């Protein structure tokens, strides 16, 4: 039994356990031989402290290993049941792990203090002046070995991780076990983050809630561990996948985006961007001075002007979010009629603006900015759409089959239902009308005005579903969604094309982000990794660093270009050239060739030549639906809503391989916009610009460039609203 347990222990942990034991033994011997010659117990204190810390660490390692085994066995007994016992076992293991980490920190401090005392009690002539150090022969050799072992333990434990046993020795290739394990990891991690942010209502929850749903989804997405793939190996697979990807070389056969939609989308984009009234927008645009910029936008320095600012639900006492929104759009306070600042799951922050000179009411919905918004994003499982959700489609001739069941992104559907109740709501028993009806209804202040609903990212998806529900009540309604998430099934997405436009910038990830696309990306990455016979370990670590870091050069480049242009109008000459997008595909190993030639030891890919259907990679791939499995009622594919406009760069292609590096990837000067097929956005595009393209100010910059190339313009500043 003990032999089988020892086989589960990581080799690095065995080495550290032996090293800690040697510290205890050698320290004890030195203590015994030095006590007779020491006049003060203070001289022996560093020795006592280091030995005691090593003993406690050794005991903590045993306890962590025991609790880790109990947790793994609990998961193995019922991997598909989310039980209280499993949560308690995980918390017990987690707290013992953290206790061991505290001991590691104390060992590091103790080793540092010991070396300081050694240096202090060594005289200038190199002779020791301490009873512990004043030894000769075998004792001196023992002292040197003791000091070396103490330093080795203190440093090595900082890089070995907290796991005592190998998780794979328990779970092997069992997909359900790996999913359950990572579900507990994500569930507890999300709750702790929310608790640190002041949302204590999420802690201690045992029953099924939104956090459990998000954790289960994230656990499913890390299930590639069942194929024997590590996290860094998966990143290497992404790099190889990006290297082998084929990007469309030309858009000659595609129709150019309608001019009117481009003009109106560019004009209204600033409202979607202004909805980010928190510090996130300022952190992205001004990483060095974001705090000063945010304080200025929030109006903290001018609290006396509070009484002139609109009062919004959930705003702070100085009405800073209203001030930030108005300052960004550069409009007076009276145009902002209603809004809500919300920090709850499945509830959206929104602003309602009345533009009299345009005879238009604009509803701006904020995208992802808080932890609760991330939970809404993570509730990506499909849910059924009710007849009320599809009011704007079923009551008109849109070619939809009313008898067929339709689906949507569950978190976005719930948020759009709540937002509908906020801006319109259902009439009560007293026959009262909603806010929009009281504003735009017959004989009201804005009688005959049009409605424009805009939003970026999560806000764009919520705006689309809100527009679908409001369309039957307000026919003169249109929705512009910038970089939205796929949120409805194919039939609903096609049916709302008359009044919904989704705008996608180049390779941005959010418009391709769905449960199905991530699962297919996992399969593709593991498959391409299994087909490559060799992979350099240096490549994997450099890839992880580059893939998870942002390019300061790119960010500053686009901000400089945007700041030089007028915000509200652009007039340039037409460019007659048609777009010829040629991808510059470089060999992914080219930059590392010199390093690979110098490496003596080569890393051999463990998945190469796995042709049998019984290997873990093949078993994992069989569990993932392909892109043709759209008829699966349990997991229907989500699509971008409405008419899809794809903005792509001219000239320099930004889809260079990750390995070539982001610092050399310049922002292109020109863009073109085309009507795209939503089927083209079913797969995630692995690209260095996939995250940067999602930034809202980059979309605004690209829209302005498209208008310049087509000699179009827009002007939002007119009578008499601008003061």
TrEMBL record:
Keyword vocabulary terms for this entry: Hydrolase, Membrane, Transmembrane, Transmembrane helix
Entries under Pfam families matching the protein: DUF7358, Lipase_3
Keyword presence, Hydrolase: yes
CDD domains: Lipase_3
InterPro entries assigned: AB_hydrolase_fold (IPR029058), DUF7358 (IPR055782), Fungal_lipase-type (IPR002921)
Record-annotated DUF7358 domain positions: 6-224
Keyword presence, Methyltransferase: no
Transmembrane segments: 12-33, 45-66, 93-116
Domain annotation Fungal lipase-type: ranges: 362-507
PANTHER family recorded: LIPASE CLASS 3 FAMILY PROTEIN
Name assigned to this protein: Sn1-specific diacylglycerol lipase beta-like isoform X3
Natural source organism: Camelina sativa (False flax)
Lineage of the species this protein comes from: Eukaryota, Viridiplantae, Streptophyta, Embryophyta, Tracheophyta
């Amino acid at each position: 039994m003990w032999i089988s347990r020892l086989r589960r222990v990581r080799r690095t942990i065995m080495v550290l356990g032996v090293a800690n034991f040697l510290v205890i033994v050698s320290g004890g011997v030195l203590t015994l031989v030095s006590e007779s010659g020491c006049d003060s117990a203070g001289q022996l204190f560093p020795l006592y402290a280091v030995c005691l810390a090593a003993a406690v660490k050794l005991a903590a390692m045993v306890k962590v290993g025991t609790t880790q085994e109990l947790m793994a066995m609990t998961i193995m007994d019922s991997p598909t049941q989310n039980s209280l016992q499993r949560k308690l076992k995980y918390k017990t293991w987690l707290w013992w792990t953290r206790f061991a980490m505290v001991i590691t920190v104390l060992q590091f401090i103790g080793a540092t203090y010991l070396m300081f005392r050694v240096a202090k009690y060594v005289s200038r002539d190199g002779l020791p002046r301490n009873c512990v150090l004043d030894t000769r022969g075998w004792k001196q050799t023992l002292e040197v070995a003791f000091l070396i072992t103490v330093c080795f333990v203190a440093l090595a434990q900082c890089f070995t991780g907290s796991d005592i046993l190998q998780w794979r020795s328990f779970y092997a290739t069992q997909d359900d076990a790996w999913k359950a394990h990572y579900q507990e990891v994500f569930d507890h991690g999300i709750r702790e983050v929310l608790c640190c942010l002041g949302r204590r209502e999420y802690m201690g929850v045992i029953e099924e809630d939104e956090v459990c749903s998000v954790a289960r989804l994230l656990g499913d997405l890390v299930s590639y561990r069942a194929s024997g793939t590590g996290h860094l190996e998966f990143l290497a697979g992404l790099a190889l996948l990006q290297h082998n990807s084929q990007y469309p070389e030309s858009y000659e056969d595609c129709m150019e985006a309608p001019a009117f939609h481009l003009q109106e989308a560019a004009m209204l984009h600033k409202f979607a961007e202004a909805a980010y009234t928190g510090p996130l927008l300022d952190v992205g645009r001004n990483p060095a001075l974001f705090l000063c910029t945010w304080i200025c936008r929030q109006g903290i320095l001018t609290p006396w002007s509070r009484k002139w600012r609109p009062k919004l639900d959930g705003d702070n006492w100085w009405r800073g979010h209203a001030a930030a929104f108005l300052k960004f759009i550069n409009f007076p306070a009276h145009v902002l009629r209603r809004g809500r600042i919300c920090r709850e799951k499945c509830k959206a922050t929104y602003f309602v603006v009345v533009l009299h000179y345009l005879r238009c009411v604009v509803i701006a919905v904020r995208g992802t900015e808080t932890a609760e918004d991330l939970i809404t994003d993570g509730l990506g499982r499909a849910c059924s759409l009710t007849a009320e959700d599809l009011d704007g489609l079923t009551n008109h001739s849109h070619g939809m089959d009313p008898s067929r069941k339709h689906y949507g992104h569950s978190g976005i559907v719930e948020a759009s239902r709540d937002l509908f109740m906020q801006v319109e709501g259902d009439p009560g028993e007293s026959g009262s009308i909603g806010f929009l009806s009281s504003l735009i209804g017959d004989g009201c202040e804005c009688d005959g005005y049009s409605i424009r609903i805009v939003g970026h990212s999560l806000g764009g998806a919520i705006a689309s579903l809100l527009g679908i529900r409001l369309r039957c009540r307000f026919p003169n309604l249109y929705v512009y969604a910038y970089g939205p998430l796929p949120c409805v099934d194919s039939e609903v997405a096609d049916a709302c094309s008359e009044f919904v436009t989704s705008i996608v910038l180049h390779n941005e990830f959010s418009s391709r982000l769905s449960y199905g696309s991530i699962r297919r990306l996992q399969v593709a990455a593991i498959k391409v990794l299994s087909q490559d016979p060799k992979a350099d370990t240096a490549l994997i670590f450099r890839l992880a660093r580059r893939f998870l870091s942002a390019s300061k050069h790119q960010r500053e480049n686009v901000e400089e270009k945007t700041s030089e242009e007028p915000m509200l109008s652009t007039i340039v000459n037409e460019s007659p050239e048609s777009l010829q997008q040629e991808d510059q595909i470089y060999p992914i190993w080219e930059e590392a060739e010199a390093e690979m030639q110098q490496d003596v030891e080569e890393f051999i890919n463990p998945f190469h030549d796995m042709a049998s259907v019984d290997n873990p990679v093949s078993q994992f791939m069989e569990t993932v639906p392909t892109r043709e499995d759209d008829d699966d009622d349990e997991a229907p594919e989500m699509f971008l809503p409405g008419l899809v406009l794809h903005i792509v760069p001219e000239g320099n292609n930004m889809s260079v391989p990750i390995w070539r590096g982001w610092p050399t990837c310049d922002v292109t000067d020109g863009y073109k916009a085309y009507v795209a097929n939503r089927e083209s956005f079913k797969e995630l595009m692995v690209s260095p610009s996939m995250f940067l393209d999602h930034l809202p100010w980059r979309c605004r910059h690209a829209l302005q460039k498209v208008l310049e190339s087509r000699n179009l313009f827009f002007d939002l500043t007119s009578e008499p609203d601008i003061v």
